[in-house]
Amino acid sequence: MSETKTRVELYLQDLSLTNAATHALVQALRKQILGLSQSSDESVQEEIKYGGILFAVEQAFCGVFAYANHVSLEFGEGASLPDRFGVLEGKGKFRRHIKLETIAEIESKHLMHYVKMAYQRSLTS
Length: 125
What we know:
Layout: H1 3-18, H2 20-34, E1 45-49, E2 52-56, E3 60-66, E4 71-75, E5 96-100, H3 104-108, H4 111-124
Antiparallel strand pairs: 1-2, 2-3, 3-4, 4-5
Helix pairs in contact: 1-2
């Protein structure tokens, strides 16, 4: 087993022990983000960095970070993503994020729309 895989599994194990609801939300997001590999020749990789899980093809395109009361889906280049559904938060020069408190918000906030855009951009840059 690779060191990266072990670090991700340890992070998830710790999260499951401290906050079951947050763990379930992070796992639901992971499943959908990693599922992008099934529709492409490019395999999505994950690693623990900056206190969360970063997802990358050749470069990172998004990250999932667990906090006490929410999970944040973050985009390093989120300011350049069109915000069709008006859910991106943040005012920085580059970064944007979407806060989630429930698994239902993955769909209601159209997360995969934004993840797919960021993923596609990572393939072409």
